Amino acid sequence: MNKWKKSFKGEGCHNPLMTQRFGADPYALVYEGRIYMYMTGDIFERDEEGNMKENSYNIIDTINIISSDDMVNWTDHGSVLASSERGAAKWGRNSWAPAAAYKKIDGKDKFFLYFANSGNGIAVLTSDSPTGPFVDPIQGPLISRETPHCAEVTWLFDPAVLMDDDGNAYIYFGGGIPDDEHIANPQTARVAKLGADMISLDGEPIAIDNVSYLFEDSGINKINGEYYYSYCSNFQVPDEKVDELGFGCGEIILMKSNNPMGPFSMVGSVLKNPEHFFGLGGNNHHCIFTFEGKHYIAYHTRILEQEMGVLKGYRSTNIDEVVIKDGVIVPIEASRKGVSQTKSIDPYKSQSAATMANMAGVNTVAIADGKMVVTDMEDGSWIQVAGVDFGNEGANEFMVTVLHAAQSGKILLYLDSLENGECIGQVEIAAGSAEETVKVTLEKKPAGVHDLYFGFEGTGYQVKDWNFC
After folding, report:
1. How far apart are CA 256 and CA 247, in angstroms?
2. Would residue 25 show up in a list of annotated catalytic residues for this protein?
3. For a disulfide at 315, which of 24, 115, 147, 367, Cβ 3.0-4.6 Å?
């Protein structure tokens, strides 16, 4: 009998990016060699009897952040308490569909997190770090129904931000269908120039014209000198119009312009609805980004909840590669496999225990210093860290920081496989420790590049970080 718990990802699959929490409406920020992913913090809703309810989005007030420098191992940075009384924007109710940007202001990099307060406006938070803590600099909405040309926008949400080469910045937002007469051209997309401080508008928003069958989900990219506006089509595209339009319901559509504020002309569909690939549909939210010379798309699906047996509309983030051929984006194939690892992990540097490519039976939680630790493990829980490079000489020792060891336990170290891999060492966890760094001599010396597995025994302890020596 297999003693190891089953992962929600298949073997060799990198999608979804994380399985310890949900994360929808992904938005990518590249900063100093890392990709930071900001996501709506979908959370289970339950009725009075504790039964799972359909995701209404009404209780979401957090934004989840993860980051990676190799596209496969993702470090969990926890959740931003963005809106509601417990969050930074106490005037707001919900925190949906984040967008992030940074800019050097007064000689220092400043980070900006934009998000939707339900469908009724856009908030902005600021920080000195891409992972927070974030504060509300204006104590109110950046964009509201009092903003010129915004009162008539059905859904005042889903921001995207463009940092142009000349230092100017623009924000794109909006969506929804005002009435049956405007299904084909809802006229609810908006763009505005941001002020130099990134927390104000430099002029009034204007309508983005002729956004065919707009539903939601603004996206913006500058590729080869041209501006690409993207969005999700609505779910009322007539069957008889699909061939003529070149797209159907709930697809990611691309338009382009030589001006950041348009007008934009139609390019076509680049990503079909997740239902086409995975059998489960829903809204289709995306972000196209460039990392280390390659183009990628982040989008959400329901494949995590499918593996969990929930099927109530809870979403998680995938990434697949974007191929541009002859100046045109080739239609994207969504997958469970995902993208390839771009670089190896250095095990001789301290690594957060909340960095992982795959896992089963663990959770992550923030501690007093804001760092994330791995918790809730029990017999058979495990973590995989992909592509660890031990070098030619290999490692002799392993160090790990353990917290709150209410009970004794054990961490087993495996190379390449839990079932068939080589066990190179183990760490005995003693009960009664508040925080302890444990160093052990390895039973076998690892060298070269391997996937590293941490297999857990026991419960009642947490793991903060690790490294080899």
Report:
1. 16
2. yes
3. 24
